[in-house]
Amino acid sequence: MSRLRINCFAVSADGYGAGPAQSLEQPLGVGGEALHEWVFPLAAWREPHGMKGGEVNESTPVVEHTLTNIGATIMGRNMFGGGPGPWNTEQPWIGWWKDNPPFHHPVFVLTHYPREPLPLKGGTTFHFVTGGIHEALERAREAAAGKDVRVGGGVQTVRDYLRADLIDEMHLALSPVLLGRGEALFAGIDLTALGFRCSEQVASPKAMHVVLTREPA
Amino acid sequence: MSRLRINCFAVSADGYGAGPAQSLEQPLGVGGEALHEWVFPLAAWREPHGMKGGEVNESTPVVEHTLTNIGATIMGRNMFGGGPGPWNTEQPWIGWWKDNPPFHHPVFVLTHYPREPLPLKGGTTFHFVTGGIHEALERAREAAAGKDVRVGGGVQTVRDYLRADLIDEMHLALSPVLLGRGEALFAGIDLTALGFRCSEQVASPKAMHVVLTREPA
Predict the structure, then answer these.
(1) Which domain holds residue B57?
(2) Of A40, A52, B15, B40, which has the fewest beta carbons less than 10 angstroms from its beta carbon?
């Protein structure tokens, strides 16, 4: 059964998934990069991003798990980037990851503006979905061909799928960072009422990982 | 300089400091006890509560620190207990901790209802303060005689002192627990604007400790 998963989603100690004032220069908002400091030094993160070396620690198996059995990714327009409004056809934006993105599978980008599919190196093709989160999930599941689908982010996209009661598993990295303001990941969303419980936790030097799964119906 | 500290304050993975429906039977709300599962097995917690044995792990020095240099504690009426409304003079409530509380110093209870001081065994005397958080702090500082003052809780009392810009140091235990609803510890409070940053973090098997301190003015 193909599941819908959220993996490696970092949350600040005060509950924010991104800082305030997100922009093209700071897609994670002011201070938001610090949420991910636990992952950048890891060999398990560097390798798929085309970098050699790096650390191995308690976070390593958690990150490796996030790469397992994923057949497609869904993301919001802000996470893909390129600014708001219609797509620039003169200088087409191809995503933050340049010409060889680390996904290596189809990626479905939620947007209000249609655009032709964008095939890049290494097996990543970005598809642009204007019909909303349900259409994106339907297309992603078909593309994943039995594997799981990952919701990559950002915060609003994660919240949309949670509120629609569609997420099966969620892995959070609780980070020892304060953001003060920004996008509160869970405000107004009752995870317990949605059936989630904490099924696993891993202490690591720079983050505490928790895995939230749904009770079997 | 006497500082105002919050120590060992547990927060759920979804940001709650207590569960919903707090009552005399469940002073931490539905599910709230689970927030503190990391502390109960520790020798450092059991010993001052009159129990032998227990674990020593990465949380131990953090808990030991919380007991250091504290000369007085402030707490809200709910944390002291006894139900809402005027004090019952027929069967006087002496607190959840019975006749030998683990504080061993003066404790100032915020309440709307006056009551004579309540001296108990081991050096703990409960004082009942009807003049609000500033009066309680003034009296606690005087009683602490140069040592630090601790805000024990609950969530509303912590939030009141944070909003009044009076907290110097805050130690949180991020717990791998979901509460779904309840009292959100930081909703609407911008810790970054208040000058807090994460100055220390300790990974432990059952919680991630973060210490938040203010930037020197």
Answers:
(1) 4-18+29-83+100-183+192-214
(2) A52
